[in-house]
UniProtKB/TrEMBL annotation:
The gene is Dkc1. Its main location: nucleus. Residues 19-77 form the Dyskerin-like domain. Keywords: Isomerase. It comes from Stercorarius parasiticus. GO terms for molecular function: pseudouridine synthase activity; RNA binding. It is found in: Nucleus, Cajal body. It holds the Pfam family PUA. This is H/ACA ribonucleoprotein complex subunit DKC1. Residues 428-437 have a biased composition (Pro residues). The keyword Manganese does not apply. Residues 401-488 are annotated as: Disordered.
Length: 488
């Protein structure tokens, strides 16, 4: 049904015929979203993610691949790039050559989501071999459950990264089965991205006091996608492409490749008007007047997905307003763009079509404004008074900032500096000494010391004569004293 029917949020309050919990991808339960406004002008551009043209469908999709044993993750991704004849592919986190299981391969536009997928949590099923017998299965189960929470890990001896000590969190782990004869244990682990299960098995052996090593490993979940979420093999991808090339049947290719929107179904949603879509693709701020619907539970600085009325992902964004604030405001910036996903000019440009912008274009055509939209000799006075040119305003702001900086520089100096300057004004320099600008650093330091000594003497009620003679004169005085003492 989802592949055949038309699905998009219509600009009317008619109840949907199909239950919205059965709607595809990001349009699921759209009628439960909060409504900002129900009216907008639908544009024919864009398409439901499941109904895109096959070329666009492939270029904005991903494959939940069951990685085979022996080839590396990069080799597998390169093979898929060659099979599908695309330019760019990426994956959701490296698997060692011998490890099998869930590897999300993103194609072309979907590679923009790779970073968020790499940092998502992972789940594994592994086999650990113990080097000696243990008392009971319960002992192994306790040891596995002990190794949860934040753990120190160093990558294995043969690793593609620098062997630095790092902290990785293990959310949950449990023993599935244990064979005491062969000393093999099957366990399941849910952990943070970048956890080394091989190192975990070594730690397990140390904890039991018998030693242990990892025998086999399979990733059963990566982010929100697991083994049961349309996982395919390399042969399936090859067959689907062959079927399309030879029989022009794209149904198998559509079954193997999934739209990138499926990776974003766990994010909070913000539905935008069709007229605002292309502006966001060009980097415009996500403003409140362009919002149609918004989801409950949006928190400040939370990562959200901005979508069209047809359910296409426009971009990932960081929320700058909570749901409560959005419901009480009618203007302002809702979110800032984190990563634009949609291609530019998928939807037509709809900015510069307001009443003021249209009037300005007419005046440029008639010659009442110059070609840059700035006033000239024939510009009416009413336009000069009423119209605010934000380009000029920004220049004025910059000038004001520069002026403020110069004023700060000219501001009165600190207390100590002003005191020292007043002292210098009271005691003019002797003709023998050079002007204050030419004084070296040493002489300045000496003056400071003399000043401090003078202040200390005054506080004690003593009078000390401070001499400001050069070092050569001091030496002469010392010599004279020595001569007098010797003569006495």
């Amino acid at each position: 049904i989802q592949h055949t029917e038309e699905f998009f949020i219509k600009p009317e309050s008619r109840v949907a015929q199909l239950d919205t919990s059965q709607w595809p991808l990001l349009l699921k339960n759209f009628d439960k979203l909060n409504v900002m406004t129900a009216h907008y002008t639908p544009l024919p551009s864009g398409a439901n993610p499941l109904k895109r043209e096959i070329s666009d469908y492939v270029r904005s999709g991903f494959i939940n691949l069951d990685k085979p044993s022996n080839p590396s993750s990069h080799e597998v991704v390169a093979w898929i790039r060659r099979i599908l004849r695309v330019e760019k592919t990426g994956h959701s986190g490296t698997l060692d050559p011998k490890v099998t299981g869930c590897l999300i391969v993103c194609i072309e536009r979907a590679t923009r989501l790779v970073k968020s997928q790499q940092s998502a949590g992972k789940e594994y099923v592994g086999i650990v071999r113990l080097h000696n017998a243990i008392e009971s299965e319960a002992q192994l189960a306790r040891a596995i459950e002990t190794l949860t929470g934040a753990l120190f890990q160093r990558p294995p001896l043969i690793a593609a990264v620098k062997r630095q000590l790092r902290v990785r969190t293990i959310y949950e782990s449990k023993l599935v089965e244990y064979d005491p004869e062969r000393r093999l244990g099957i366990f399941w682990v849910s952990c943070e991205a970048g956890t080394y299960i091989r190192t975990l098995c070594v730690h397990l052996g140390l904890l039991l006091g018998v030693g242990g090593q990892m025998q086999e490993l399979r990733r059963v979940r990566s982010g929100i996608l697991g083994e049961k979420d349309n996982m395919v093999t390399m042969h399936d991808v090859l067959d689907a492409q062959w079927q399309y090339d030879n029989n022009k049947d794209d149904s198998y290719l559509r079954r193997v490749i999934l739209p990138l929107e499926k990776l974003l179904t766990s994010h909070k949603r913000l539905v935008m008007k069709d007229s605002a879509v292309n502006a966001i693709c060009y980097g415009a701020k996500i403003m409140l007047p362009g919002v149609l619907r918004y989801e409950d539970g949006i928190e400040l600085n939370q990562e959200i997905v901005v979508i069209t009325t047809k359910g296409e992902a426009i971009c990932l964004a960081i929320a700058l307003m909570t749901t409560a604030v959005i419901s009480t405001c009618d203007h302002g910036i809702v979110a800032k763009i984190k990563r634009v996903i949609m291609e530019r000019d998928t939807y037509p440009r709809k900015w510069g079509l307001g009443p003021k912008a249209s009037q300005k274009k007419m005046m440029i055509q008639k010659g009442l404004l110059d070609k840059h939209g700035k006033p000239n000799e024939s510009t009416p006075d009413s336009w000069k008074k009423e119209y605010v040119d934000y380009r000029d305003a920004s220049k004025k702001e910059a000038a004001a900032v520069a002026q403020a900086v110069t004023e700060v520089e000219r501001a009165p100096k600190r207390k100590r500096e002003s005191e020292s300057e007043s002292d210098e004004a009271v005691t003019p320099p002797s003709p023998a000494t050079p002007p204050p600008e030419e004084l070296s650093k040493k002489e300045k330091k000496k003056k400071k010391k003399e000043k401090k000594a003078k202040e200390a003497a005054e506080s004690r009620g003593e009078q000390i004569e401070v001499t400001s003679e050069t070092s050569t004169k001091k030496k002469k005085k010392k010599k004279q004293k020595e001569v007098e003492e010797s003569s006495e």
